[in-house]
Structures are given as C-alpha cells and as structure tokens.
Amino acid sequence: MTSPRLRTAAPWTRVSPAALVANLESASVGASDVGDLRRDAWGHGLLVVGRALRHAGVGAVVVDAVDRAIAEDLGFVVTDAAPTVPMARILGLEGGAPVMSLRARVLSTKPLRKGEGVSYGYIHRAATDTRVALVPGGYAQGVVRALGNSVYVDIRGRRRRIVGRVAMDVCVVDVGSHGDVVPGDEVVFFGDGVVRDELGQWASATGLRPAELAARVGLGTAREVAE
User: Fold this and answer.
1) Angle, to 10 degrees, between the axis of helix 210-220 and the axis of helix 199-206?
2) Do the bridges between strand 77-78 and strand 60-62 make them parallel or antiparallel, or are there none, so unpaired?
C-alpha cells in the first residue's frame, strides 16, 4: 500500500483501484467517451482515475485548466465536450462498489453521564450513561455540520452515531458503555465495513449529492491508494 504520511490527528481517504476497475468493467465505455477529471477526479485522485479510464479505452476528458498537462501526459484528448462516462457509477457513488472510504483513528474516550451534553451548544445530551470518543474529521475535511446526530461510523465492526455539533477538525461519537473502544482504533465514516453505503445517509442529512460530498472529503484529506 502506498500512502502519504498518515497522522492519528487527521482523517484520510483510501482509494481502491480494484473497485474502480470492477465498476469500469460493468460500464460500456470506449474511445468515443468523455470522462470527467475535474476537481481531482471528484476528489478520488486524477492519476488513479485517469489511468483507469485510459486502460478502459476512454479517449477524452474534461479537466481543470491547472491539470491539463497531466491529462495530456496520460494520453487523453482534453475537450470542452459534455462528459459521457457515468462517473458517479464508476466511482461507486450511485451503485457499484465504493471506490473511496474515509477513515480516522480515535483520539480519546471519556464517560458521558445521563443528561450531560457534548460539543458546541450541547445540541445532544446523553439519554443514559455512556462513553464518547473524540475522532478526527470535521467540516474542514468535509464532515459537514449537518451530520451531527444524523449519521454513523464503523468502529470495531459496529455502527456508532456521531453526536452533537461537528466541529472544524473533530467530531464526537457515542461508543456505548461497554468500554471496547480505545484510542488508536480505526474509524470508518463511509465506503467500507458496516458503513459501506453511509454516504447515501450523508446525502439525505445534508441535501447534497454524494458526488459533492465525496469531492469535498477527497480534496480536504490526505489520500492513500490501496494495492
């Protein structure tokens, strides 16, 4: 696995070329099709997605002006024509296997007693005694504020709810009173495990399209590419 320097104090995205290739194989694309590599291939990585499109035979792309030379080096014709490749499908945002997952590691845990609140404004108060985890990932990285009290993450194979108001760089997760979650545990926000399809819930909670959410996350975090 190739990776940038991953920090426990920051979330990161993992992109799966295997999922991308599988989704491409189920789509009928070819030399006459136009792919869309704008916004760093919707936050999934221009080089990873571009290479997969070229391998599938796609001949032309639309791309941000700053990335034109990269696209041409990959062998594409750069065009202003409307994209015809079903990008949401091949990226797993509308059917197919998710290509991107968002991950972090638990920073700390602490007890939360019945009636106590968390985060700004105390918009969430515990109904019973429980424990909460502080997790990297806030609106600066694309974990938008509307997700508080609305969506779940995967820690140790169980769905755990984000509670309270999402902050700039962190959020709070109710991990229950069992004490099985410890600092350093991996957290998956969407794209894998029991929250494989949670990005759809993000869309429902925010009113934004999965593509918009994925692009924001991908552009706001470090990225690793699975082998």
Assistant:
1) 110
2) parallel
Residues 6+ apart with CB under 8 A from 217: 13, 43, 100, 102, 141, 142, 143
**121: alpha, beta or left, given left = phi > 0 and alpha = psi -120 to 50?**
left
Residue 123 tokens, joined: 């918009």
The residue to which tokens 């426990």 are assigned: 8
pLDDT value of residue 217: 98
Q: Is the dihedral angle over the CA atoms 219, 223, 226, 227 positive or is it negative?
A: positive
Pair of tokens at residue 114 = 């019945």
**pLDDT tens per residue across span 24-38:** 999 989 999 999 999
95, 210, 214 from 203: Cα distances, Å: 14, 6, 10
pLDDT of res. 1:
39
Pairwise CA distance, residues 87 & 53, whole Å: 10
pTM of the model: 0.93
